[in-house]
Amino acid sequence: MYITCLDVEGVLVPEIWVAFAEARNLPELKKTTREEPDYDKLMKYRLDILKEHGLGLKEIQETIETIEPLPGARAFLDELRTFSQVILISDTFTEFAAPLMKKLGWPTLFCNSLEVAENGVITGHKMRVQQTKLTTVKALQSIGFETIASGDSYNDLGMIRASKAGFLFRSTDKIKAENPDIPAYETYGELLDAIKKAMKD
């Protein structure tokens, strides 16, 4: 029994924080887990910038409503689900995800939650567990599933390496150079073929 575990931002949809940074002309918010492996540190940095500019959940959600999945992502996900169980595992938050999941056909998503004050100010974040992606993959394996994993960032490497097969997808040159043993793909067709092959091996 196989479950394919996919990262979300950068793999199926654009990076939410990058889109928000561009919408609000705040280039300092473009930093993601592609550049900063420590997610807690990254979120504290982001929340400090939001506070400095008086921005909250409402403004971010307004941007998210305008984001479309990456070209081909919905068709890729639909085809993948015809031959594999699929779980999206993301360090994003339930408060961000719903509009994007609707556009992707409501796939199963495991993510985290935000702490939000009554006035809409984001005061913190709550991770479901530490190292959410690696921990989830190991839990699935503990109940009898073989996992195949793919993502684009530093925080995906744990689940990729822990899985029977793992792939980088549209990652950075730096991450690919640092992990030359992990196959890296740029198109959904290549990734589909790699997943199918892994399930046959």
Description:
With 201 residues, the chain is of the alpha/beta class. It has nine helices and seven strands, in the order βααααβαββαβαβαβα. The chain has helices at 16-24, 39-52, 57-64, 73-80, 94-103, 132-142, 157-162, 173-178, 188-200; strands at residues 2-6, 85-93, 109-116, 122-126, 146-151, 165-169, 184-185. Strands 4-3-2-1-5-6-7 form a seven-stranded mixed sheet, sandwiched between helices. Helix 3 (57-64) runs parallel beside helix 5 (94-103). The longest helix has 14 residues, at 39-52. It is globular. The model has no long low-confidence stretch (mean pLDDT 93).
Please sum up the structure shown.
The chain is α/β, with parallel strands linked by helices and 201 residues long. Helices cover 42% and strands 20% of the residues.
> What portion of residues belong to β-strands?
15-25%
| Major sheet | 7 strands, mixed
Order of helices and strands: EHHHHEHEEHEHEHEH
**Classification by helices and strands:** alpha/beta
The best one-word shape is globular
Strand order of the largest sheet: 4-3-2-1-5-6-7
The radius of gyration computed from the alpha-carbon positions, rounded to a whole number of angstroms, is 17 Å
Number of strands: 7
Helix content: 40-55%
Task: Please count the helical segments.
Answer: 9
Report low-confidence residues grouped into runs of 5 or more. none
Question: N-to-C terminal Cα separation, in Å?
Answer: 13 Å
Residue-averaged pLDDT, rounded? 93
